[in-house]
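Running this now, will post back.
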Amino acid sequence: MRHRVAQRRLSMPSDQRRALLRSLVSSLLWNDEIDTTEARAKEASRLAEKVITLAKKDDLAARRIVHGLIFEQNIPFQGSSNKLHSKHQSGHQLLHRIFTEVVPLYRDVRGGYTRLIRLGPRRGDGAMMVRVELTKGVSVGHRSGQRKRSADRASGAPAPAAPTGAPALAGTAPVQPVGPSVEVPPSQAEGDSGTEGTKE
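Update: finished.
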């Protein structure tokens, strides 16, 4: 019987489970969304809600407890190529982001900071995949390339030019034929026509 069981074991020892959940929560709070399996997503969502609620207190004790529940992200300091400089400058970026960017969005909200969206079964083992995302994502300068492209499409940024072999739309200029466009010098073109005439 599973009476009074507080959490899912996720088929791993407690130390590995804690490290996994810390990593998932850190990625969620840094990227505003993560894709993982359903069981892991539910546990990570619970911990993320606790972290945000605790960070609302915004005192030294809360900062120390939150720092113990997350992993700092190894992201170099922007605009610096020096590794030592980057290491010292990027010490507590995620902690700073939680207290300055994430928490103010939820200052007047009581719970419900994350949502789960089912993505369907994973190919291979059929595990149900879920996207965990913050209901009010920040996404300030830390988005992946794929999310930047989708954001550009949503904002109406110009799309890349269509390939030359694409069909023309109504009212547009005709499309160039498909294939490499190689210019042949006139001397070679005349010589080719003369050889073709001799072969015939």
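The chain has one domain: 14-153. More later if anyone needs it.
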